[in-house]
Specification:
The chain has 14 helices and twelve strands. The longest helix is centred in the last third of the chain and has 47 residues. The strands form three sheets. It has a five-stranded antiparallel β-sheet with strand order 2-1-4-3-5. Strands 9-10-11-12 form a four-stranded antiparallel β-sheet, with helices on one face. It has about 425 residues and is α+β, with helices and mostly antiparallel strands. Strand 6 and strand 7 form a beta hairpin. Helices cover about 40% and strands about 20% of the residues. The C terminus is likely disordered.
């Protein structure tokens, strides 16, 4: 430590996970770091909190909250929290959820128009702070007596708003980060719809409202920047007179310094530069109406989306599985068509030849003509399939029958 006298002897301590913060004087020479649990003075007892700020930055925070460093009523830091202090603190903290439910039921029985949002117990269990929300003033004198007899603690009632309640409950905002009111925002300024109008935002209650049901606090963050940019725009230019009629102002583009107007004969919007608006305004004051507005060509920096051309997909997209199945099916059909006539001719060929030979041999013995029985097949398939073979066999049987006719005894013996 360079100079003990000039250093800041005040530290900031947070309670209930940062929902409540207060300043305490560090009278001892002991140094504390952020996140240390310490025991501080409380109401007729002690309380346990977490160190949130130390050093010179505490003076900036005190200046922001209008707190004086030499305030004699500022409470002191007692010691670093011991194991016994932490155990007592955890036991009393576990009573808070049950106390919230019970306190709400008691307030409802007394027919009070209020809502108990949170109950904060002191570390030693001697005091309880009841945070409530109400639209107007509430007479809770009877309620304090019931709470004191029910919870056996010293009761303190503190009214908060919807924004403070959202900060105590916590959550994630539409930006994807933790709520500002539950992290760093301590002073809640009033937000109205004029802030949205200056920023050219649509007045949509669902989009502009936060989790607390009020307008988002972040609407005020960029409001000063927009107000500075709007100073360059001319005033009293809601209506411009041209030859076609009166042009009415629709909106202002702050980033491009353009003012959009519409004419009564069409719904088209015409962007005008600030210089052109000032020129038309000066002509109107002289009683002159210009022929046209002379709008500015607005070129978008975004790439244009080209529409895809129509493509004939028939015959271009194919599935391999369907092609294989169709190809296999065609091969099976082709093989069946090739095997059908061959199988029928082969099967019927011996059936047509056997009776030819037997009939021919038997008819030789009787002396009848063997040509009719041997030359006429039973089926047409055998004749078409093995026509050449049948002709050769018929020619061979014809010569053999002639030889047998010359020797009749031989043919009878074989027929027997």
């Amino acid at each position: 430590m360079a100079d003990y006298d000039s250093t800041c002897k005040v530290i900031e301590v947070s309670f209930s996970q940062g929902t409540r913060k207060d300043f305490f004087r560090n009278t001892s020479l002991q140094q504390y770091e952020k996140g240390d649990l310490i025991a501080v003075e409380g109401v007729s007892g002690f309380d346990v909190g977490e160190v949130s700020l130390t050093g010179e930055i505490v003076r900036l925070q005190m200046k922001k909250r209008n707190a004086k460093e030499d305030n004699p009523e500022m409470k002191k830091v007692l010691r670093r929290a011991t194991d016994r202090d932490i155990e007592t603190w955890k036991q009393n903290k576990s009573r808070e959820p049950e106390a919230v439910i019970r306190s709400r039921a008691i307030a409802k029985q007394l027919k009070l128009d209020m809502k108990i949002s949170q109950v904060e117990m002191q570390a030693d269990g001697r005091k309880a702070t009841f945070f409530y929300i109400a639209d107007g003033r509430v007479d809770f004198r009877e309620l304090i007596k019931v709470y004191a007899s029910e919870f056996k603690v010293k009761v303190e009632m503190r009214q908060i708003g919807a924004r403070q309640e959202a900060g105590k409950v916590g959550g994630i905002g539409s930006c994807g980060r933790e709520l500002c009111c539950s992290t760093w925002l301590t002073d809640f300024k009033s937000v109205n719809t004029a802030a949205a109008r200056y920023q050219n935002l649509s007045i949509n209650q669902t989009k502009l409202s936060g989790q607390c049901g009020r307008l988002k606090c972040c609407l005020n963050y960029e409001l000063d920047t927009y107000l500075d940019a709007l100073q360059g725009f001319p005033d009293n230019c809601d209506t411009l007179q041209v030859a076609k009629g009166n042009a009415f102002l629709i909106k202002k583009d702050i980033f491009k310094n353009l003012m959009w107007y519409t004419l009564p004969d069409s719904n088209k919007q015409y962007p005008l530069s600030i210089e052109r608006v000032n020129k038309i305004k000066a002509l109107n004051q002289q009683g002159i109406r210009p022929e046209e507005l002379e709008p500015v060509d607005v070129v978008s920096s975004k790439p244009k989306d080209t529409e895809p051309e129509a493509v004939e997909l028939v015959g271009q997209i194919s599935l391999r599985t369907l092609e294989k199945a169709e190809k296999k099916k065609k091969q099976q059909q082709q093989s069946r068509s090739n095997n059908k006539p061959q199988g029928s001719g082969n099967k019927q060929q011996p059936q047509g030849n056997r009776p030819q030979q037997t009939q021919g041999n038997r008819q030789q013995g009787t002396g009848s003509k063997p040509q009719q029985g041997g030359s006429q097949p039973k089926t047409q398939g055998g004749q078409s399939g093995n026509q050449q073979q049948q002709q050769q066999r018929h020619h061979h049987n014809k010569h053999r029958n002639k030889n047998r006719n010359n020797n009749p005894n031989q043919g009878q013996g074989k027929a027997q």
